[in-house]
Structures are given as C-alpha cells and as structure tokens.
Specification:
By secondary structure, this protein is mainly beta. It is built from 7 helices and 35 strands. The radius of gyration is 41 Å and the shape is elongated.
Length: 573
C-alpha cells in the first residue's frame, strides 16, 4: 500500500477575530502519495492537537475531523470546529506560546492514524490574541502577520502557491510565491469549412512566471456534447471512437502556448455536421496532463459550430495516350471529394468542346473510386478526327468537370499503351502492325533467376536483342527444368487466355522501362527486373543474368543464385 504524504500549503489563517464569535483557525493541506501523486476526492480521518512549548509539548487541545480532499488533493478544515477530544479551543492563551499544530491522518477515513506531522504556528495565531488591533480581513483565508512593528494583512493565496518570509525595510513580511492556475477560455470557432475549423485557447493569464513555464493544453472536439467524465477520459486516452483530442503543447515542436490567442486548426471534419469543442489547460499550480496523472485539468467553456455543406469534387483530366484510329486511353485524378462520398466518376468525350455526361460516349467508375487516379479506354472513335475529353466526378452536391484536353485520332491500327492481347502494347515495329505486349502487373516481386543450380552453359549469352526473349525463355526452361524461377513463372502466365508469354530479353526489357508509365502497374519503381539474357563470365564466375533498375534505367548484372528481382512477362503479336 502506498504511504500517503501530507503537504501543508497554508499553515493557518484567521477565520474570526471578534470576541463574541467562535475563534477558529483555517487549515489547508495537500495530500500526496509517495510517488508525489495527488490523492483526490477521498475522505480522510484526522486528529489535530495544539501543543504548547515545543514540538513534543503538552497537548492543551485536541479534536478529530473527517475532511474530503478536492480534485486537486486539497483539504480545508477549521481547527476549533471539529469533535473535541480534550480542552477548550477558545480558552487557549496565545500569548503563552510557542504553539505547534500536530496532525495525525488516516488516509482510509478511520482512526488508524499512520501519518504524523508537526508544524509551529508562527504569526497568524497571534492575531487571535491581538483581537481587533490589526486590519480586518475581507476574504476567507486572509492572514494577519506581525512584522516586528505592526500588524499587516496578507490576502489569501492561490492553490499551488507557497508561503515565504522575506526581509523588508519594515521587517519580515510573508508573501505568496509560485504559480497560480491559468485563466483561459475556448476560442470562438472561425474559418469554418466543410472539413476544417480554426479554434484554440485564449489565455488571459498563464499563472505567473512559473505557471508560464509549465503551461500546456489543447482542445477537445466531438460530435456530441462533452460530459465532465468524457472530457477527462479524452485527455488521458487521446483520440478515441467518440472523442478527438487535438493537443497543442509548449515545447513539443509547436509554437509555445502563451498569453493571448493560440489558434489550432482541426482538419478531417465531416460536412454539415455539428461539433462541440472545449479548451483545456494546466500548469504547475493545477495538475500535469500526462496520461499517468490521476488529477484533472481545467476546462474552458463548451462551444459548438456546424461545418458547411460539402462542395463538389475537384478533378483533373489526364492527357490522352495510346491513340490509334479507333481507340485511345485517358483518365483523371480525383483531388478532393468535396466533403462527401464520390458516387460516380469517369471521363466523357466528344467532337465538340466541353463534353458533358449527357453524352453516351463516357466511362463510369461508380462509387468504387472516392479519390486518387483512374484510367479509362475511349472506344468507338473515328480515324483522323479531333476529340475533346474531360474527367468528371459526382457527389451529393453535384458534378464537377476537370480541365479539357483534346487529341486527334490517326490511321494507325495499334498504339503504344493500347490495351490489347491480354496486356498493354509497349513496342511497335516499323510497320506499326506488330510489336510487344506486357502484362499489366508483375508476376513476382522477389524471385531468383535460377532453379537451384547452374545448368545453363552460356548459349543465351548474346541473346539480348528484341525478338530473342521467347527463345531465351525456352532454352532456360529446358536447362533448368521444372520449378519456380523467373523464366518459368513468365512462361506459365496466361493473361488474356494466352499461353505464349515469356521473360523479356535485355533490350525488350529496356523498351518496357521506357514505356512503363503507359503500361501501368509499376507501383514500386525502386526495384530491378530480370531479363532472359544470361551473362556467364563475370569476375571469372558462372551464373550472372542481365537486369534493369526501373527507377533510373540502369542496366546491370545480378547473381542468378542469390539475387531476387521482379518479373514482368511479355508476349509478341
């Protein structure tokens, strides 16, 4: 069990000094455990004794009380108002001191007192003796003190401050030192859009120099009003399903939290939605906002705002490519959904400027694409004709069109980038009627060139030219046999229902590198792709094959036995 410590922050203050009224001493203390954590909201048992003559002197008065600590661990009692055990408080002759207060505490609220503390009563009790000779206090907790020449009045301090005696020309004078609680409020929301808001903390007082050094805080925002417990739980748990905490801490790489307006921009909100916000803050006079703290921060006022209605999406039309006499490829990018779900998108084209979706010549993605880029095939085109193209996107606020692009069809039968024969064309010969097709995705992103042992003898060493990949693949499989390796998975690919796919030769692979953006599917360009062209004598060793870095186009040689590269199968037509 943790041992509880009692930390006195206000020794004693005059509650009443009039002869006809009860004479009481106001006493405050903060209860902390051995880890210096505040013990908040607990009933504790106390026995209070007034000792005369010294810390081990005679107890001339004794009483018991059961105070309740507050959220800051502070207990406040009036000595003289408890259950009397012995003595009469009003009969104490304060002129025959010195006097000491002895406190005994049971943190469980009983009478098993396990904590003992003794402190000398200094100037304050003598105001009881002085009667009405000193200035009158105005608030509970005000203190009278004697500086050696006359009585003075010290107004009540703030939670967390310490009472110190300082020398002055007129004698010793007590004063409060330390941080006070911050004074702040929640900033009225402004710059409200469909998905963001600017709010924050308006700090009118940081709580003094020490308070400013430890000041930190933030805001909480939610789609439902906060209860006190919900606000506290949100501080400790941070972002959860129901509540979102945006932190704004001094010394955390953000602008320091200080006196004045401290704006916080909150993104990622939903359109046409009411939100509730509240600011919170803490400094040395309150509690820490660390997740391990058992105390509570201070909260500002609870405010609300409603985000604006969603906007239409924003979309960009991409250039058209793979143009031949009857088809082409295009696409677009949905840059923003406008704050609402995109229910449809695509491209629309026509022979007149600014085509719209009333035309039948369009593609549709439906609700499958809410953001990002998309590609589409334009079909049913006429040779040697100029077309206008716009991307579009739809949400509940309406339809938006991207920029207009135009292109002209030609007399060619095929085009680079055209979808054909189970993949995309990436190379055409001089006739324009024959070429090479690449599959639309990799067959592997990590596989060896060989099949466990070097069985080839270098006969494919010079087979690097365009048109040699198929023969290379056949030779490699004959030499390596069955198994899973670069050439075998290329040959076994059957995209589009075709069975004549193969591992490209070095120069065929280089053509694929040049056209990779039109073919598509190259999501990770920081990788190397195998060719079927073999190099057998590198550093006097057998077993190296050509490959290409698809980030920079670097031609290289990798060890067949240990390197693991990507494979993209191709076929000819």
């Amino acid at each position: 069990m943790k041992r509880i410590l009692l930390s006195i922050i206000v020794f004693a203050t005059v509650y009443s000094i009039k002869a006809q009224a009860p004479q009481l001493l106001s006493y405050q203390a903060v209860v902390r455990d051995t880890a210096n954590n505040i013990v908040a909201g607990k009933t504790v048992g106390m026995r209070i004794s007034i000792l005369q003559g010294g810390a081990a002197g005679t107890a001339i008065y004794e009483e018991t009380q059961k105070p309740l600590t507050n959220a800051a661990g502070l207990l406040s009692i009036q000595i003289g108002a408890g259950t009397v055990v012995t003595g009469v408080f009003a009969n104490i002759n304060w002129a025959t001191g010195p006097y000491f207060i002895k406190t005994e505490t049971d943190p469980k609220g009983g009478t098993s007192y396990t904590i003992t503390g003794t402190a000398q009563l200094l100037s304050v009790p003598y105001a009881l003796y002085a009667g009405e000779s000193g200035p009158a206090g105005k608030n509970p907790g005000d203190m009278l003190y004697w500086n050696g020449k006359q009585w003075g009045l010290l107004p009540v301090g703030l939670a967390g401050q310490q009472l110190l005696l300082r020398p002055t020309p007129s004698g010793l004078q007590p004063s409060w030192f330390g941080a006070s609680a911050p004074v702040f409020n929640t900033m009225i929301p402004y710059s409200i859009t469909h998905n963001s808001v600017v709010t924050g903390i308006n700090v009118s007082s940081a709580g003094g120099p020490l308070g400013a050094q430890s000041l930190k805080g933030g805001i909480l925002i939610s789609v439902k009003p906060f209860t006190a417990i919900a606000m506290e739980d949100s501080i400790w748990a941070g972002k959860s399903t129901s509540y979102y905490s945006k932190s704004y801490y001094a010394g955390s790489g953000q602008p320091p939290l200080g006196v004045g307006k401290n704006p916080i921009t909150v993104p990622g909100l939903q359109a046409s939605t009411t939100y509730y916000i509240v600011a919170f803050a803490s400094n040395a006079a309150t509690v820490s906002l660390d997740s391990t703290d058992s105390g509570y921060p201070i909260f500002g006022s609870l405010l609300s705002f409603t985000t604006s209605a969603p906007l239409v999406p924003t979309v960009t039309t991409n250039p058209v490519f793979a143009i031949n006499k009857v088809s082409a490829r295009g696409g677009g990018v949905i840059n923003s959904d406008g704050g609402a779900v995109v229910t449809n998108s695509g491209i629309v084209w026509g022979t007149s400027p600014n085509p719209d979706t009333t035309l039948s010549s369009k593609t549709t993605n439906g609700s499958s694409l809410d953001s990002g880029s998309f590609r589409a095939v334009l079909t049913g085109l006429i040779a040697n004709t100029t077309y206008y193209v716009r991307a579009y996107a739809v949400n509940k606020s309406g339809i938006a069109y991207g920029n207009q692009v135009s292109f002209k069809t030609n007399n060619a039968t095929f085009a680079i980038g055209e979808l054909y024969g189970g993949g995309a064309i990436f190379y055409l010969d001089s006739t324009g009627n024959h070429g090479l097709i690449a599959s639309l995705a990799d067959q592997s992103n990590s596989i060896a060139w060989w099949n466990g042992s070097i069985k080839t003898d270098g006969k494919s060493d010079t087979a690097t030219a365009i048109g040699k990949g198929a023969a290379n693949t056949t030779y490699i499989i004959a030499a390596q046999g069955t198994g899973t390796y670069a050439a075998s998975i290329a040959r076994n690919y059957n995209g589009g229902g075709f069975t004549d796919w193969y591992l490209p030769s070095l120069l065929e692979l280089q053509q694929l590198f040049f056209q990779q953006s039109l073919v598509g599917g190259f999501t990770d360009t920081w990788t190397r792709f195998w060719s079927s062209s073999e190099h057998t004598l590198i550093y006097n060793q057998l077993g190296f094959a050509d490959d290409i870095d698809f980030n920079v186009g670097e031609l290289g040689h990798e060890d067949q036995t240990s390197a693991a590269n990507n494979v993209r199968a191709i076929r000819s037509f």
